[in-house]
Amino acid sequence: MDAQGRGETDPADQWVFDPQTGTYQLRMDAPPGEQNASAPTPGEAAPVQDAPPPSRSAARATRGANSRRKPKPKPSKKRRAMVWTAGGVGFALVAVSIGGYLVYQHFNNNISTVDVGDAGSKDATTDGPMNILVIGTDSRVGLGRQYGDEGSVGHADTTILFHVSKDRSNATALSIPRDLITDIPDCPTRQKDGSTKVIPGEHNVRFNTSLGQEGRDPGCTMRTAEALTGLKIDHFMMANFNAVKDLSTAVGGVDVCVGKDIDDKGGSGLKLSKGHHVVEGEQALAFVRTRHSVGFGGDLDRIKLQQQFLSSLIRKMKSSGTLTDPKKLWTLADVATKALTVDTGIGSVKKLSDLAQDLSSVPPKNITFATVPVVDNPAEKVHTSVVLNNPSAKELFEMVQADNSLTSTKPKASASHAPNPLDGPKAAPIDVRVNVLNGSGTFGAAQATLDWLQNTEGVTRSSNGGNAPGTLDKTTLVYAPNQADQARRLASMMGLSASALKQGTQNAAPRAPMTLTLGKDFTTPGKPLSPPPAPTAAPSDVQHVQADEALCAK
C-alpha cells in the first residue's frame, strides 16, 4: 500500500510470510497486494492472492507470533560430561604445554654461552668418542674483595679433559696442571660487535694463561689442550667460584676425607679435622682451592683434592636419587644452568639434555681420574712451573687417542670375533716370496722397495711386478691361507696394519708369490706404513684412581 498516500511502497508491506519456515521474508520486488502471498514451492512463481494485505499492526502481530523459534533441547547429562571432559583435557594440555615452555625458557635463559667458532663441534653428541674440556676459572669479576685480587679476569685455574669412550662404557678424566709450560696457538675470538679478532699465540708459557689473559676465551683453552694432547675437543664447560658453592649445596653436600688436620690460615681458609666430612658452599670451595696444607703444598697436590671432590660429587648425584627426584632435579638443573658457561654447540636445554643422556650410562667405577705426567721445569733454579714428562705423557696421550681405557672394562659384545691376521708364527725372510707392484703414483717406488727387501731385510725371493692397474690410497698385501706366516713376516717388516692384509680362500702353489701393491701411503722403504699400536695400559708412573674410590687426601 502507499506510504502516506504518496504512491510509495510501505516497507511493512514488503514482508512475505513463508509457511514452510514459519517466518516472514523481505521481498523488495513484491508489488503491493502480493507481499502476503504463500511461499512458492521450489521452481514455481509466487502465486498472487486477491485478499487484501494485512494492516501494519496485524502484520507485526503475526510476524511476532510466528517468528518465535522453538527452544533447543537441553543436552543430555552424558553429552554434558563429554563436553566438560574434552574441555578439561584441552585445558590441561594447554596448561602443560605453556608450563613446559616456560620451564624450557627458564632454564634456557639461565645458560651463558660463548661462540668458540671452529674450536668445538656444532653437534651436542657424536657416534664416536667424546672429549669435553671442564674449566674452573679463578675469575673474581663481580665477587668483590671476598677472594682477593678483586676484578681479576682469571685464568684456566683448573682444567680437566673428560674423554668418554665410543661405546660409552668408560671415561678418562685427565687433569692438566695450570703451571705446565706449553705453547698457546693463535686464537680467533668473537668480539661483542660480532667481528672476529685473532689473538697471537705464545711459546713456552703457562697453560693457565690460555684463558682470560690478552682477551683469550675458552676457545683458546680448547685449542691449547688440543695441541698439547692431540685430542679433538668437542665442547667446554666452565665454572667459577660460585658454581662450586652452589652445586655442592644443591646435592646436599659432598663427602670428602683428609688424612690429617688442616688449618689453611694463609690461603683458602679451609679448616678440617682428620677424617671424613660433608662439605658444601664456602667450605666446599675452600676444599678445592687449598694447596698449602696438603702434600708438598703445590698445585699437583691440589689437583688430587679436586679429583677427590669431583669423584664424590659424581657418586652423590648417581646414588642419592638426585636424578630421579623431581624437586632435587629441578634445583640441580636450575643451579647448574646458572653456574655453567658452555659453548654454543651445547648452549640450550635440549642440547645439554641430549649430551647428559648420551653420557649417563658410564658408571662411576669406570671413570678414571689421572694427571698428565710432568716434572719440574729444568730451566728454573727455583721451580715454580712444570714440563711434560716424556715418554710417559706421550704414551698416555696415545692411549686416550686410541680410545683405550685406563679402567679394566670388558668390551661390549661384537658381532665379529675374527682372529687378528697379525697374530701367529712368522716365516723366515728367505722363505718370503712376494711380487711388488707400484700403485702409489710415485715413480720407482716398487724398485726402491725391492732393493730394500733384498739387500736390507733378506727377502731375496722377491720381484718387481711393475705398475699396478691403477693407484691405491692404502698399501695392500694379498696372500693365500698357506702363506699366512709369510704375510705376517712381511707385515712386520713393512709396518702394515691388519686391515692391509687380504687373505684369499684357496691355497697357493708351493712357489707362488704373494702380491704387495704399494699405495699412496707409501713414502720411503723401511718407514712403517701404519703407526705402532697404542698402549693398552697406562704408564707405571701415572697415578690414577676410579671415581667410585673414596680416598683420603694426605
Characterise the protein shown here.
Helix 4 (241-250) packs across helix 5, helix 4 (241-250) runs antiparallel to helix 7 (326-339) and helix 5 crosses helix 6. This protein has helices at residues 56-67, 77-110, 218-229, 241-250, 282-289, 299-319, 326-339, 349-359, 392-401, 445-455, 484-494; strands at 15-18, 23-26, 112-114, 130-137, 156-164, 171-176, 181-184, 187-190, 196-199, 202-206, 235-239, 254-258, 262-263, 271-272, 275-279, 340-343, 367-371, 374-376, 386-388, 434-438, 462-467, 476-479, 501-503, 514-518, 544-546. Strands 3-16-11-4-5-6-17-25 form an eight-stranded mixed sheet, sandwiched between helices. It is α/β, with parallel strands linked by helices. The chain has eleven helices and 25 strands. The chain is globular and about 90 Å long.
